[in-house]
Specification:
- By secondary structure, the protein is α+β, with helices and mostly antiparallel strands.
- Helices cover 20% and strands 26% of the residues.
- The chain has helices at 28-44, 47-52, 145-158, and strands at 60-62, 72-80, 83-97, 101-103, 123-124, 126-132, 138-144, 180-181.
- The strands form two sheets. It has a five-stranded antiparallel sheet with strand order 1-2-3-6-7. A three-stranded mixed sheet has the order 5-4-8, covered by helices on one side.
- A hairpin with a 5-residue loop joins strand 6 (126-132) and strand 7.
- The N and C termini lie far apart (36 Å).
- The mean pLDDT is 97.
- The structure holds nickel (II) ion (NI).
- Nickel (II) ion binds at residues 110-112, 153, 157.
């Protein structure tokens, strides 16, 4: 049985806290929650389920959005039509990044932000993220383009940052000359 997640809204102060790193194992209860996050994100990207369960499409979630201020993120990336890759990273850290910056031309969205916010969010075009898997094994992921944006967006959540904090209020949009827009 699919149960929709209770995702905190942007007004909730818990989204503005810097989350703490894991120093021990991820609990069974937390692992179950991760499974639900993966299912929620996957369903939200499949039209049939999106409509059936009235979901907003999303590619990622971070624990603080569920009221847990611990450093864990989940990304479900549709890398090919109908094909999804799941990324679960404990204590994620950007260990290197490109010089090049990009932005999603349509702006970014967030399952905690229930309104449209216009503006380009500058992000690194490529990042390498290190961290741990759910069993505590070290992992390293190279991400580019939309997936790179997703990692930066979710890691921001662990630091209490929402995507619109990064939109320049005086100049919310870039031209193609200034930045590569996806
Ligand atoms: Ni978000």
């Amino acid at each position: 049985m699919f149960k929709k997640l209770n995702i905190l809204d942007e007004k909730d102060k818990r989204l503005r806290i810097k989350s703490v790193p894991y120093t021990g194992p991820v609990s069974d209860e937390e692992k179950e929650l991760v499974e639900r996050m993966i299912q929620h994100l996957t369903y939200s990207q499949i039209e049939e389920y999106e409509l059936k369960y009235d979901l907003r499409p999303g590619t990622g979630l971070a624990f603080p959005q569920l009221g847990i201020n611990k450093r864990l993120i989940v990304i479900v990336d549709e890398y090919e039509k109908g094909k999804f890759a799941n990324y679960v990273v404990v204590n994620p850290k950007i260990i290197s990044h490109s010089e090049e910056m990009i932005a999603a031309d349509a702006g970014e969205g967030c399952l905690s932000v229930n309104r449209d916010v216009d503006g380009h969010v500058p992000r690194y075009a490529r990042v390498t993220v290190s961290g741990l898997d759910l069993d505590g094994n070290p992992i390293k992921i190279r991400a580019r383009e939309e997936l790179s944006i997703a990692f930066q967006h979710e890691i921001d959540h662990l630091n209490g940052i929402l995507f619109y904090d990064r939109i320049n209020k005086k100049k919310p949009f870039f031209s193609e000359k200034e930045m590569r827009l996806l």
